[in-house]
Every structure is written in structure tokens, then in C-alpha cells.
Amino acid sequence: MLNLDWKPNKASSKALYLQIADYIKFKISTAEWPVGFVIPPQRELSKLFNVNRSTLVSALDELKAEGLLEGNGKGGTKIINNISQLLNNIQPNWQSYIEEGIHMPNFKTIKQINDLEFKSDYIRLSTGEASPEMFPQEKMSVVLNEVTKSMKNLGYEGPKGMLYLREQISKYLNTFGIKAPASSILIVSGALQAIQLITIGLLQQGATVFLEDPSYMYSLQTFQSLGMRRSGIPIDEEGIKASLIPEYKKKNNSSILYTIPNFQNPTGTVMSQNRRQELMKVCQKEKLPIIEDDVYRELWIDTPPPKPIKSIDKTGLVLYVGSVSKTLSPGLRIGWIVGPEPVIERLSDIKMQTDYGSSSLSQLTVAKWIETGLYFDHIETLRKQLSLRRQVTLEVLQKYFSEIATWNIPSGGYYVWVTLKYKIGMYKLFNEACRIGILLYPGYIYDSNFNYSLRISYSYAPIEELQQGLYKLSKLIKKLINSKDT
Ligand SMILES: Cc1ncc(COP(=O)(O)O)c(C=O)c1O
Q: Which residues sit with their C-beta closer than 6 Å to ligand 1?
């Protein structure tokens, strides 16, 4: 759905259809709506402009007569000329550039969520982020004060990132069994950049990446855009089924395995200690490196998860990825990769060619958070709040969803993975939920096998909204189950 902040002035003496035609001409003349762009359907536009359909059709007819628009009905109405192009035919066809760019666009549903999340009146059961209520404002002021005092300059840092931060991370990783000197740590702009660097720096085009099915990495186009394939391996309550790897490997030219062992996105699963050991053994035998994405590690509610796979890695098989996005703030954009030094050197070289390093201000800030210990105090508080939110969510689910769905009880993290007992149209559910102001991640964005599942995030919405949103969602699902046309 397009976001328009303009409406025709009904009090003006100028006809509404001419006001609309002028507005669209303005969009075309500034190339905000470039040649080749298909404008939204008439029904949607008349709603956005708050006019009846015949007024809109008159405006579009006017623009067609001027040679700016073409078509209607099924294929949509397209912009075929820019105003200046009508004069001297000079505008590039941005639409074809957009379609031919190397990186694939996001899935339509995700793009829709990304756009709608920033409109104020939605209940965000979609967002994988700590609620603004949980942001540690006071502690952040203390830390920023420290940062101001010790800030010497904010120049470029070395290729692996700020040494002071790498030293802090090295000590921190040691607390859960990862022995990594600062030289084998690379600072990145969030875990997602870590995955991108690993993909472009170490994998060949056409290679296959093994991953959990479903996985966060199915909701993005990172691997495919770079010419790699994904091969999903089933999971059970102990995590990825490691015993299947040799068989899958025979069928695929696989290069690496990507796993989220703790409070997995989207299912919330925690890989058991035994499974971690089994996975390590199998991957060692198959010479299959592992990307261990551990961004949710600290968010345990009941008991700490087992130690990272990296902590039992004696042969340098595991590239360990973490960040402060889920604990402290995703806006700082700070994460890290731990791996064998030659790999870290290679990735740091690409990082330099990509952005010359992550924000020095953010690096210094995170280093202070860790060094002062405030990071760990904050995580303790966060866990208590997550525990309360989980309890509320499970209570609401029990009350309103028992007849229509099943779900896991997450022992940490942000998500409950809810699976419906009935087959209903999930696109319809998603769209209807948006219409009543609720955003969520439907399972189909991960894989068609998970069509009837939903990822519900309990970390973001204020608690009352969380309760209200889930109640309204249960009513909507029941309505769709009972209606014949889903
Ligand atoms: C498993 C996983 N990895 C990485 C990320 C992205 O993290 P970052 O903000 O550190 O790039 C997310 C965000 O949702 C995630 O769920």
C-alpha cells in the first residue's frame, strides 16, 4: 500500500479531478513516480485520495490524453512518459534498472511489514526487537557520559574494528567458553552484515547453504541474491537434525551450514547440548563449516542455554556471530564475527571495501557498556521483563487460541511459534490482520511447509496491546475458519 500524505482540497474551487491530475503530474515531474512505474489500482487510489472512483477515472483520463499514462484494468496503469521526456526524451528508464539490479527485493509481505511498522497505529506482533519501554535510557546516559570523556577522535578504525571493543568482546566471549583473542574478532554492523560478508567473502556462486527449516534466513534474499541456493534441514525439539546432514550433502554441492542454536528465529527452539556435540562431529567429518548465529543467546528466561558450538570447536570449523541488537539496541548496528585469523583477515578486507568500518561512536559506546558491566545489569532486567511478557502471552494464547492452534513454550528469546489447527487462507489472514491494525509474520515467508504457522513476537508491543492484539487476532482467525471463502 502506497503512503500518500496529500488529499485534494474539497473546499477549493478547482475541480477535484484536476487537483488529482496535477498532483500525479508533480509526482511524475519529480520522477518520484518514474517511467515504467505502475500506479496503484483505482480502488486503492480513490481511497487514498478520499474521492469516488469516477473522479479518479476523470483525472487518469486527463493524464492519458496528455500522453503521460497508459493502460488500465488488469495490467494496471503505467507511467509511460515524463513531462520533460515528452519535450526531449531524456529520462532513463529507472524501472528497468530497478528490475535488473543484482540484489533481489524483499518478499512482498516483508516489505509491507517493514513499511507499516513505522506507522504509529499498528500493534506490532511482528517486531523482533525489545520494546522501547525496555530501552535503558538512564544507563545509556551514564555510558554516553563516559564515552564523551574518553573520546579522543572519531576517525576510521583498523580493518578489524576498534581494538578496545575487540578486547572487551574477547573477555565477554570467554565467560561462555569461547577463547578468542582480539585478533580473531571482526567488528561488523550487526549480525546481518556478518552473514553477508561470510557469503560474499567465502562462498562460491552456485554453492548450497544448509540451514534449519524454517529459518530467519528464509525470510531474506541474502543468499539467493548472491547466487547461492538454500537447502532446509528439518528440526525437532532439540534443534537441526544433524544426522540427516550426510545424506543431504550427497545431493548438494553444499559449502556451509547456517544455524541459530538459541531461541531460534522463528520457532524459539534451543539446540540441546547433545545435538550441538553431534552437529560438531558430523560437520567435522563432512568438512562442513558452520555459521553459528547466536544473537539471542542472552535472552534466556528459565535457564541459560548450553554453551556455544564454537566453545567445543577444536578445529576452527565454526564462524561465530553475535551482536548487541537483541539485547541493547539494534540501532547501534554493532556485531562481531569470531573465526580463524585468515578468514577474519579476508572478511575484514571486504568490510573495508564495503564501508570502511562500523560507526566509531557505536563501537566506543558498546565497549563502555561491556567494560562498565552495565551491559550485564541491563540484560538481567531485560530477562525479567521478557519473562513477564512471555507469561502474559501464554495466558492469552491459552484463553483464546486453545481451540484453534497449538504453540511451543519458549524458554527465552522473543517469539512464540503458533500453528493453526485449521487450513485457512493465510494471505487473507495477513491482509485482514493489517486492516484491523495487527502486524505479524505469517509462516509462508519462511517456507510453504509452514503455511499455517505464525511467528508472534512478545518483545515489542506494550503489554496491553499485546493482549488486545492477540485477542483480536484470535477473533479474526475464528471468523476466517467459519467463513466459507478462505
Ligand atoms: C537470527 C538473526 N540473526 C541476525 C539478525 C539481525 O541482527 P542484527 O540487527 O545484529 O543485524 C536477526 C534479526 O532479527 C535474527 O533474528
A: 128, 190-192, 216, 260, 265, 293, 295, 323, 325, 330, 335
